[in-house]
Every structure is written in C-alpha cells, then in structure tokens.
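Support request, please re-run this one:
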Amino acid sequence: MVARTGTMWLMPVELTLRKVAAEVERGDLASVLRARQRLVGLVTSFPDRLDLRDRLADVYRVLGEPAQAGRWAYLADERDEAETAAFERAYRTPEARLAALNWVSGEATTETARIRLAALRGAVSEQLRAELARADDRDSSWPTNILVLLGLVVVLLCFVVGAVTLVMWVYRWVAG
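Re-run finished. Output below.
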C-alpha cells in the first residue's frame, strides 16, 4: 500500500514516520503515546532498522523513560551513558538485555551495532557457561552422592525385608 502525495510516492514506513514526527511535535501525552505505539509497531516489523530504534529512543526520552531510551539506543553509534546504565540496571543479565533488544536479524548494519551485539552475545555465552559450571559443581558433590547411595541402600533393604516378611506370612497362612 502506497500513498501519493503530489509527485512523490511515499511508502507506509515514511508515512508512519511523518505521523510520528507530527504527534511528537504536538507534545501532548496522548499524541506522544500514539507516536510510541506506531514506532513500536515499526520496530517490530523492521527490527534491523537502527534508525527506527533511534526514533523510538527519542520518544522514550520525551516520555522521561531513560531505561527504555537506553534500550532502543543501545546499538546506536552515539548513545547516552546514563540511559545505557539505566537500561542495564533494568535488565540485569546479558541474557535479559539481549532478549530486550529483540534483535532477530543476523548481522547489524553498522560496525558499532555489530560490535555491541557480538559483545552482548559473548557475555550471554559466558553467563551460560558460568551457570553450567555451577550446576556441574552442585551435581557432582561427593557428600551428596554418598547420601543418595545410602538412601538407595536403605530403600532396597526395606524392600527386601518387606518381601521376606510377606513371603513368611503367606507361608504361615497357607501352612497353618
């Protein structure tokens, strides 16, 4: 679907961006919230377009939400470190940050975004490796293994004693 304005053809993304700009310029809360919703839709449809993410960060700045502004500007060439810190506080683990970025495409279009995504993915790998190492250490504890073995021996012993008792009772009942 395209719209014709004068002699120029505008695609739906550009039309939506014009509406967003007009709504943000109006400045009232309802208009800015509509602009945010439009941009969220665009970022969902075009997750690899960094310019849309930057515009969404701008709208969150207008709304006074630094964590969200930091989230959407995280891959930008220039970003506000206070917003980035707010984003990292809100999404404490690398895995949570990567999920929050909602980056579904393969490669980023800028070198800065590629570097930041690679660093974040590396941090997620390190986090998972550390969690697996902790899980391996917990699972291979000798005292725990000995207690489990003793528990199994007790259960097996109870089963054998119970089976012998049952056989003896049935034998006495039949014989007696």
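Residues 1-10 have pLDDT under 50 and may be disordered. The two ends are 94 Å apart (CA to CA).
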